[in-house]
Amino acid sequence: MPTVTTPNTGIEIFYEEHGDPSHDVILLVMGLGAQMTLWPDELVAALAGEGFRVIRYDNRDIGLSQKMEGARAPWLPVQMLRKRIGFPAKVPYTLKDMADDGIGLLDALGIERAHVVGASMGGMIVQLMAVHHAERLHSMTSIMSTTGNPKLPQAEKQAIEALIAPLKSMDEDTLIAHGINIIRNIGSPESAEFPFDEPAQRERVLKNIRRSVYPAGLPRQLAAIIDDGCRRARLGKVRVPSLVLHGEADPLVKLAGGEDTARHIPGARLVTFPGWGHDLPLPLVPRLANEIVSHARGG
Asked: Mind spelling out the 3-state secondary structure of the chain?
């Protein structure tokens, strides 16, 4: 089993890698409550096929990485209120801790520098890698993410409700329905370019369910996001070559989040795609891979 304990944070991280071990590394960081398997195999293969060593991993508290059993996240409304009035709330771990996990994985694998690519919360994590560990990065790509600025347009009601909805039971049919509901409410709106293939989606959801189900990690990861607050000032100090990719139809992290990210990172390049929501649809994989690879080579 490919698991390492990070030397800096002491967290057990599950990972997998593809491609030639002698090639430059692309480190993929996934989002809130999402296992590393949400990075499509087709995207991983495309990046490896372009001559990169591709590593994806489960963040702490999800998938097959270490769970923070017994840790309690603050009650969400209380945490948000305390944040709004400037009072900190005690969280089990921070978003920076999660960024340090990724750098610790590189340490454990003997990798000096990498291109880091993060989606959603993973975008926030790689932003913090660029802030705190710039010397370890060749480049950074932030996908469908944001700066944490509370004045930006908020998620559509049905999108956030689907994401954080409590599970009614842990039986397989309920878990599948829950997963499909999330995909339908946060993913790309169904269109000729992005058709909704329900049998394929059900198969993918089922595969992830049978790999791991751990709903207790999501509120702790969400608490870390809220605790981190607005990163605009910190991003202004980033000197890592940065790319921002965002969907123009994203109902969970609105396009304004990507625009704000690119605006506050010096020299960042913003690329947007019409019709793209908060997912990684297979028809978009070739274009995403091309942007990531072009940026990595330029970086």
From this structure: CCEEECCCCCCEEEEEEECCCCCCEEEEECCCCCCHHHCCHHHHHHHHHCCCEEEEECCCCCCCCCCCCCCCCCCHHHHHHHHHCCCCCCCCCCHHHHHHHHHHHHHHCCCCCEEEEEECHHHHHHHHHHHHCHHHEEEEEEECCCCCCCCCCCCCHHHHHHHHCCCCCCCHHHHHHHHHHHHHHHCCCCCCCCCCCHHHHHHHHHHHHHHCCCCCHHHHHHHHHHHHCCCHHHHCCCCCCEEEEEECCCCCCCHHHHHHHHHHCCCCEEEEECCCCCCCCHHHHHHHHHHHHHHHHHC
Work out how many domains the chain is built from and give that number: 1
Which domain range does residue 161 map to?
3-298
Mean pLDDT of all residues in 166-171: 91
pLDDT number for residue 84? 72
Specify the pLDDT at position 78. 65
Q: What is the CATH number of the domain that holds 58?
A: 3.40.50.1820
pLDDT, tens digit, 9 for 90 and up, residues 253-282: 999 999 999 999 999 999 999 999 999 999
pTM (2 d.p.): 0.96
